[in-house]
Amino acid sequence: MLTGYVYISVIMKQTVKNTLLSKVNAPYGTYASAGVLAVQIQVPSLDSDYIGQVSSFFSEIPVEDQLAFAHQHGISEAALKKAATAFVELSGVDAPLAA
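Now predict its structure.
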């Protein structure tokens, strides 16, 4: 059984993840699960079926939520910033984390 603090922490992480996934997937015909998104944001590619979700992640999701999502998926802040910079260079879309 989870203690109160741990339970609240788990629920908050799940809520942030669900909200984030809803926002990045909403405009697109394909659905990126949390695992797929975690892989796609690490190596952005314009040829990916999920480039729209990657774009939404880097340009529309608050930086603190990007960092929390990355942490939950074992992606370091440095690696996420490097990926955001690569995404900006590929797409020309602004990404606050790359700044």
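The chain has a mean pLDDT of 86.
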